[in-house]
Amino acid sequence: MVGMAVTTMENIFPNNLPDIKDMTLAECEAFVADMGSPRYRATQMFRWLHKQQARNFGEMTNIAQKFRQEIALRARISIVEIAHVLEASDGTRKLLFKLEDGNYVEGVLIPGRNHFTACLSTQVGCRMGCTFCLTGKMGFKRNLRPGEIVSQASALLHFHPDISCGNIVMMGMGEPLDNYDNIIAALKIITSEFGLSFSAQKITISTCGIIPQIARLGKAFPVNLAVSLNAANDEMRTKLMPINKKYPLKELLAVCKDYPMPARRMITFEYILIGGINDSLEDAKKLSSLLREIRCKINLIVWNAIPDFPFASPSQEKVEAFQKEMIRNKYTAIIRASKGSEIMAACGQLGRAKQQTMSLIEA
Length: 363
Ligand code: SF4
Hints:
CATH superfamily of the largest domain: Aldolase class I
CATH architecture of the largest domain: Alpha-Beta Barrel
Helix content: 25-40%
Shape: elongated
Distance between the termini: 49 Å
CATH class of the largest domain: Alpha Beta
CATH topology of the largest domain: TIM Barrel
Bound molecules: iron/sulfur cluster
Oligomer: single chain
Mean pLDDT: 89
Protein backbone atom coordinates (compact mmCIF):
# COMPACT_ATOMS: atom_id res chain seq x y z
CA MET A 1 0.00 0.00 0.00
CA VAL A 2 1.40 3.41 -0.95
CA GLY A 3 2.92 5.27 1.98
CA MET A 4 3.04 2.37 4.42
CA ALA A 5 6.42 1.44 5.84
CA VAL A 6 7.62 -1.80 4.29
CA THR A 7 8.07 -4.58 6.78
CA THR A 8 10.95 -6.80 5.81
CA MET A 9 13.52 -8.78 7.71
CA GLU A 10 15.44 -5.50 7.83
CA ASN A 11 12.69 -3.99 10.00
CA ILE A 12 12.81 -6.81 12.47
CA PHE A 13 16.31 -6.30 13.76
CA PRO A 14 18.07 -7.36 15.93
CA ASN A 15 15.72 -9.04 18.40
CA ASN A 16 12.74 -9.83 16.16
CA LEU A 17 10.71 -6.94 17.53
CA PRO A 18 9.38 -4.23 15.21
CA ASP A 19 11.08 -0.84 15.50
CA ILE A 20 8.59 1.73 16.80
CA LYS A 21 10.62 4.46 15.01
CA ASP A 22 9.68 2.93 11.64
CA MET A 23 5.99 3.52 12.28
CA THR A 24 3.94 6.42 11.04
CA LEU A 25 1.46 7.81 13.56
CA ALA A 26 -1.38 5.83 11.95
CA GLU A 27 0.69 2.63 12.11
CA CYS A 28 1.65 3.29 15.72
CA GLU A 29 -2.00 3.91 16.63
CA ALA A 30 -2.98 0.61 15.02
CA PHE A 31 -0.14 -1.11 16.90
CA VAL A 32 -1.24 0.14 20.35
CA ALA A 33 -4.89 -0.53 19.50
CA ASP A 34 -3.86 -4.15 18.80
CA MET A 35 -2.44 -4.26 22.31
CA GLY A 36 -5.85 -3.18 23.63
CA SER A 37 -4.50 0.24 24.66
CA PRO A 38 -6.01 3.64 23.84
CA ARG A 39 -4.78 5.26 20.62
CA TYR A 40 -3.51 8.38 22.43
CA ARG A 41 -0.63 6.26 23.74
CA ALA A 42 0.75 6.44 20.18
CA THR A 43 0.70 10.25 20.24
CA GLN A 44 2.43 10.24 23.61
CA MET A 45 5.14 7.88 22.37
CA PHE A 46 5.56 9.88 19.17
CA ARG A 47 6.29 13.01 21.20
CA TRP A 48 8.85 11.18 23.31
CA LEU A 49 10.52 9.53 20.35
CA HIS A 50 10.73 12.43 17.97
CA LYS A 51 10.56 15.59 20.07
CA GLN A 52 12.49 14.37 23.14
CA GLN A 53 14.63 11.75 21.35
CA ALA A 54 13.86 9.10 23.96
CA ARG A 55 16.17 6.10 23.60
CA ASN A 56 14.05 3.64 25.55
CA PHE A 57 10.50 3.25 26.83
CA GLY A 58 11.63 3.78 30.43
CA GLU A 59 12.28 7.48 29.65
CA MET A 60 8.62 8.07 28.76
CA THR A 61 7.74 9.07 32.29
CA ASN A 62 4.24 10.45 31.68
CA ILE A 63 3.09 7.09 30.29
CA ALA A 64 1.75 4.44 32.68
CA GLN A 65 4.50 2.05 33.73
CA LYS A 66 2.35 -0.99 32.94
CA PHE A 67 2.01 0.14 29.31
CA ARG A 68 5.75 0.82 29.06
CA GLN A 69 6.54 -2.67 30.33
CA GLU A 70 4.06 -4.22 27.91
CA ILE A 71 5.26 -2.37 24.84
CA ALA A 72 8.89 -3.12 25.65
CA LEU A 73 7.99 -6.80 25.18
CA ARG A 74 6.42 -6.13 21.77
CA ALA A 75 8.53 -3.39 20.17
CA ARG A 76 11.92 -1.76 20.34
CA ILE A 77 13.49 1.64 19.66
CA SER A 78 16.37 1.65 17.18
CA ILE A 79 19.42 3.81 17.83
CA VAL A 80 21.42 5.57 15.12
CA GLU A 81 24.65 6.86 16.64
CA ILE A 82 26.71 9.83 15.47
CA ALA A 83 30.08 8.12 15.04
CA HIS A 84 32.03 11.18 13.96
CA VAL A 85 31.68 14.78 12.82
CA LEU A 86 33.92 16.43 10.25
CA GLU A 87 33.85 20.22 9.91
CA ALA A 88 34.99 22.22 6.89
CA SER A 89 36.40 25.75 7.11
CA ASP A 90 33.16 27.13 5.58
CA GLY A 91 31.15 25.69 8.49
CA THR A 92 29.75 22.67 6.62
CA ARG A 93 29.61 19.65 8.89
CA LYS A 94 29.44 16.07 7.77
CA LEU A 95 28.06 13.60 10.28
CA LEU A 96 28.91 9.94 10.02
CA PHE A 97 26.01 7.84 11.31
CA LYS A 98 26.53 4.30 12.51
CA LEU A 99 23.54 2.04 11.95
CA GLU A 100 22.69 -0.91 14.16
CA ASP A 101 23.97 -3.46 11.64
CA GLY A 102 27.39 -1.78 11.50
CA ASN A 103 26.80 0.05 8.20
CA TYR A 104 27.50 3.78 7.94
CA VAL A 105 25.73 6.60 6.15
CA GLU A 106 26.39 10.31 6.03
CA GLY A 107 24.35 13.41 6.67
CA VAL A 108 25.46 16.97 6.00
CA LEU A 109 24.65 20.31 7.64
CA ILE A 110 25.12 23.12 5.16
CA PRO A 111 25.22 26.63 6.65
CA GLY A 112 23.17 29.43 5.11
CA ARG A 113 22.79 33.10 6.05
CA ASN A 114 20.30 32.61 8.90
CA HIS A 115 19.67 28.91 9.01
CA PHE A 116 21.15 25.67 7.80
CA THR A 117 20.08 22.95 5.41
CA ALA A 118 20.09 19.31 6.51
CA CYS A 119 20.96 16.74 3.86
CA LEU A 120 19.90 13.13 4.52
CA SER A 121 20.90 9.78 3.10
CA THR A 122 18.24 7.29 2.04
CA GLN A 123 20.23 4.15 1.18
CA VAL A 124 23.49 2.48 2.14
CA GLY A 125 25.23 2.93 -1.20
CA CYS A 126 23.27 3.32 -4.43
CA ARG A 127 22.51 1.14 -7.42
CA MET A 128 22.17 3.94 -9.99
CA GLY A 129 25.86 3.98 -10.95
CA CYS A 130 26.25 7.63 -11.96
CA THR A 131 29.82 7.81 -13.20
CA PHE A 132 30.68 11.05 -11.39
CA CYS A 133 29.45 9.89 -7.97
CA LEU A 134 31.42 8.35 -5.16
CA THR A 135 28.32 6.76 -3.62
CA GLY A 136 27.53 5.19 -7.00
CA LYS A 137 30.99 3.59 -6.99
CA MET A 138 30.27 1.94 -3.61
CA GLY A 139 27.48 -0.12 -5.12
CA PHE A 140 24.24 -0.87 -3.28
CA LYS A 141 24.02 -2.46 0.16
CA ARG A 142 20.49 -1.84 1.37
CA ASN A 143 17.63 0.61 1.76
CA LEU A 144 17.39 2.70 4.89
CA ARG A 145 14.29 2.06 6.97
CA PRO A 146 11.97 4.99 7.79
CA GLY A 147 13.29 5.16 11.38
CA GLU A 148 16.88 5.42 10.14
CA ILE A 149 15.99 8.32 7.85
CA VAL A 150 14.03 10.08 10.61
CA SER A 151 16.87 9.54 13.12
CA GLN A 152 19.28 11.34 10.79
CA ALA A 153 16.81 14.22 10.41
CA SER A 154 16.34 14.44 14.16
CA ALA A 155 20.10 14.41 14.87
CA LEU A 156 20.78 17.10 12.25
CA LEU A 157 17.85 19.30 13.31
CA HIS A 158 18.97 19.21 16.93
CA PHE A 159 22.69 19.54 16.21
CA HIS A 160 22.81 23.34 16.53
CA PRO A 161 20.61 24.30 19.49
CA ASP A 162 20.70 28.01 18.50
CA ILE A 163 20.36 27.84 14.70
CA SER A 164 17.19 26.62 13.09
CA CYS A 165 17.02 24.29 10.13
CA GLY A 166 15.43 25.99 7.12
CA ASN A 167 15.35 23.08 4.73
CA ILE A 168 15.67 19.33 4.57
CA VAL A 169 16.94 17.78 1.37
CA MET A 170 17.10 14.08 0.59
CA MET A 171 20.24 14.41 -1.48
CA GLY A 172 22.78 12.38 0.44
CA MET A 173 23.79 8.78 -0.19
CA GLY A 174 21.31 6.81 -2.27
CA GLU A 175 18.47 7.49 -4.68
CA PRO A 176 15.40 8.41 -2.57
CA LEU A 177 12.87 7.27 -5.17
CA ASP A 178 14.53 3.84 -5.29
CA ASN A 179 13.41 3.49 -1.66
CA TYR A 180 9.98 4.96 -2.25
CA ASP A 181 7.75 3.44 0.45
CA ASN A 182 10.28 4.05 3.20
CA ILE A 183 10.87 7.69 2.26
CA ILE A 184 7.11 8.30 2.19
CA ALA A 185 6.80 6.81 5.70
CA ALA A 186 9.76 8.95 6.85
CA LEU A 187 8.15 12.06 5.32
CA LYS A 188 4.95 11.34 7.24
CA ILE A 189 6.88 11.15 10.52
CA ILE A 190 9.08 14.19 9.80
CA THR A 191 6.05 16.35 8.93
CA SER A 192 3.70 15.04 11.66
CA GLU A 193 2.83 17.62 14.32
CA PHE A 194 3.69 14.95 16.90
CA GLY A 195 6.85 13.95 15.03
CA LEU A 196 9.44 16.49 13.89
CA SER A 197 6.76 19.07 12.86
CA PHE A 198 8.76 20.06 9.79
CA SER A 199 6.92 21.72 6.91
CA ALA A 200 6.60 19.61 3.74
CA GLN A 201 7.11 22.80 1.73
CA LYS A 202 10.64 23.02 3.07
CA ILE A 203 11.56 19.50 2.07
CA THR A 204 13.14 18.64 -1.27
CA ILE A 205 13.48 15.17 -2.74
CA SER A 206 16.27 14.85 -5.23
CA THR A 207 16.21 12.19 -7.92
CA CYS A 208 18.30 10.99 -10.83
CA GLY A 209 15.04 10.62 -12.74
CA ILE A 210 12.99 7.52 -11.91
CA ILE A 211 9.95 8.55 -13.90
CA PRO A 212 7.16 6.35 -12.42
CA GLN A 213 8.13 7.30 -8.87
CA ILE A 214 8.26 11.02 -9.70
CA ALA A 215 4.64 10.78 -10.84
CA ARG A 216 3.68 8.83 -7.68
CA LEU A 217 5.47 11.28 -5.40
CA GLY A 218 3.68 14.22 -6.96
CA LYS A 219 0.33 12.67 -6.10
CA ALA A 220 1.33 11.41 -2.63
CA PHE A 221 3.16 14.26 -0.94
CA PRO A 222 3.47 18.04 -1.51
CA VAL A 223 7.27 18.22 -1.39
CA ASN A 224 9.69 20.06 -3.66
CA LEU A 225 11.42 18.18 -6.43
CA ALA A 226 15.02 18.42 -7.59
CA VAL A 227 16.18 16.49 -10.63
CA SER A 228 19.82 15.75 -11.27
CA LEU A 229 20.10 16.46 -15.01
CA ASN A 230 23.79 17.01 -15.84
CA ALA A 231 23.52 16.81 -19.62
CA ALA A 232 21.47 18.34 -22.38
CA ASN A 233 21.40 15.33 -24.69
CA ASP A 234 20.63 11.65 -24.22
CA GLU A 235 23.99 10.41 -25.43
CA MET A 236 25.97 12.32 -22.83
CA ARG A 237 23.40 11.84 -20.07
CA THR A 238 23.43 8.08 -20.56
CA LYS A 239 27.22 8.10 -20.30
CA LEU A 240 27.08 10.07 -17.04
CA MET A 241 23.87 8.57 -15.65
CA PRO A 242 22.97 5.04 -16.85
CA ILE A 243 19.36 5.49 -15.64
CA ASN A 244 18.88 7.72 -18.70
CA LYS A 245 18.87 4.65 -20.92
CA LYS A 246 15.64 3.50 -19.25
CA TYR A 247 14.16 6.95 -18.66
CA PRO A 248 15.41 9.29 -21.41
CA LEU A 249 15.36 13.07 -21.28
CA LYS A 250 12.18 13.69 -23.27
CA GLU A 251 10.06 11.45 -21.02
CA LEU A 252 11.77 12.71 -17.88
CA LEU A 253 11.07 16.33 -18.72
CA ALA A 254 7.45 15.50 -19.59
CA VAL A 255 6.84 14.06 -16.11
CA CYS A 256 8.63 17.05 -14.55
CA LYS A 257 6.35 19.41 -16.46
CA ASP A 258 3.32 17.71 -14.88
CA TYR A 259 4.76 17.56 -11.36
CA PRO A 260 2.34 19.40 -9.05
CA MET A 261 4.72 21.85 -7.36
CA PRO A 262 3.44 23.83 -4.39
CA ALA A 263 2.31 27.38 -5.29
CA ARG A 264 5.11 29.78 -6.20
CA ARG A 265 7.69 26.98 -6.08
CA MET A 266 9.78 25.72 -8.98
CA ILE A 267 11.40 22.42 -9.86
CA THR A 268 15.14 22.57 -9.37
CA PHE A 269 17.37 21.07 -12.02
CA GLU A 270 20.82 20.24 -10.76
CA TYR A 271 23.55 20.45 -13.38
CA ILE A 272 27.09 19.48 -12.41
CA LEU A 273 29.45 21.29 -14.75
CA ILE A 274 32.31 18.97 -15.69
CA GLY A 275 35.24 20.36 -17.67
CA GLY A 276 35.12 19.45 -21.38
CA ILE A 277 32.15 17.11 -20.87
CA ASN A 278 28.96 19.17 -20.52
CA ASP A 279 30.10 22.77 -20.00
CA SER A 280 30.04 24.24 -23.53
CA LEU A 281 27.93 27.14 -24.75
CA GLU A 282 26.18 24.67 -27.05
CA ASP A 283 25.19 22.62 -23.99
CA ALA A 284 23.77 25.75 -22.34
CA LYS A 285 21.74 26.60 -25.46
CA LYS A 286 20.40 23.06 -25.73
CA LEU A 287 19.51 23.02 -22.04
CA SER A 288 17.67 26.33 -22.36
CA SER A 289 15.57 25.01 -25.17
CA LEU A 290 14.84 21.70 -23.39
CA LEU A 291 13.52 23.33 -20.22
CA ARG A 292 11.45 26.02 -21.94
CA GLU A 293 8.06 24.73 -20.86
CA ILE A 294 8.91 23.89 -17.24
CA ARG A 295 8.62 26.24 -14.26
CA CYS A 296 12.13 25.71 -12.97
CA LYS A 297 15.40 27.06 -11.72
CA ILE A 298 18.84 25.68 -12.41
CA ASN A 299 21.57 25.00 -9.87
CA LEU A 300 24.94 24.94 -11.56
CA ILE A 301 27.38 22.92 -9.47
CA VAL A 302 31.04 23.12 -10.30
CA TRP A 303 32.58 19.66 -10.38
CA ASN A 304 34.82 18.96 -7.37
CA ALA A 305 37.94 17.01 -8.18
CA ILE A 306 37.80 13.54 -6.61
CA PRO A 307 40.85 11.26 -6.72
CA ASP A 308 40.43 8.31 -9.11
CA PHE A 309 37.70 10.01 -11.17
CA PRO A 310 38.56 10.83 -14.79
CA PHE A 311 36.92 14.27 -14.73
CA ALA A 312 38.28 17.80 -14.55
CA SER A 313 36.78 20.94 -13.05
CA PRO A 314 35.50 23.44 -15.64
CA SER A 315 37.27 26.78 -16.09
CA GLN A 316 35.81 29.84 -14.40
CA GLU A 317 35.14 31.38 -17.85
CA LYS A 318 33.14 28.34 -18.99
CA VAL A 319 31.09 28.36 -15.80
CA GLU A 320 30.29 32.04 -16.14
CA ALA A 321 29.50 31.76 -19.85
CA PHE A 322 27.14 28.84 -19.14
CA GLN A 323 25.33 30.78 -16.46
CA LYS A 324 25.13 33.90 -18.64
CA GLU A 325 23.50 31.94 -21.44
CA MET A 326 20.89 30.48 -19.08
CA ILE A 327 20.13 33.92 -17.66
CA ARG A 328 19.94 35.39 -21.17
CA ASN A 329 17.21 32.82 -21.81
CA LYS A 330 15.34 34.08 -18.72
CA TYR A 331 16.19 31.26 -16.33
CA THR A 332 17.18 31.62 -12.72
CA ALA A 333 20.57 29.95 -12.81
CA ILE A 334 22.63 29.98 -9.66
CA ILE A 335 26.22 28.86 -9.37
CA ARG A 336 26.26 26.85 -6.20
CA ALA A 337 29.36 27.16 -4.09
CA SER A 338 30.72 23.70 -3.46
CA LYS A 339 30.44 23.80 0.28
CA GLY A 340 32.36 21.27 2.30
CA SER A 341 34.50 19.99 -0.55
CA GLU A 342 37.61 19.59 1.62
CA ILE A 343 35.72 17.11 3.84
CA MET A 344 34.14 15.38 0.84
CA ALA A 345 30.68 16.66 1.74
CA ALA A 346 29.91 18.26 -1.60
CA CYS A 347 27.71 16.90 -4.34
CA GLY A 348 28.81 13.44 -5.52
CA GLN A 349 31.40 13.14 -2.77
CA LEU A 350 29.49 11.33 -0.07
CA GLY A 351 30.61 7.84 0.83
CA ARG A 352 34.12 8.41 1.98
CA ALA A 353 33.56 9.75 5.50
CA LYS A 354 34.15 6.41 7.13
CA GLN A 355 37.55 6.03 5.50
CA GLN A 356 38.38 9.67 6.41
CA THR A 357 37.23 9.12 9.97
CA MET A 358 39.19 5.93 10.34
CA SER A 359 42.33 7.61 9.03
CA LEU A 360 41.80 10.50 11.48
CA ILE A 361 41.35 8.08 14.35
CA GLU A 362 44.38 6.04 13.30
CA ALA A 363 46.62 9.14 12.78
S1 SF4 B 1 24.30 10.75 -8.00
FE1 SF4 B 1 22.66 10.03 -6.66
S2 SF4 B 1 21.56 8.53 -7.94
FE2 SF4 B 1 23.55 8.83 -8.90
S3 SF4 B 1 24.84 7.19 -8.05
FE3 SF4 B 1 25.13 9.03 -6.77
S4 SF4 B 1 23.72 8.80 -5.08
FE4 SF4 B 1 23.06 7.38 -6.72
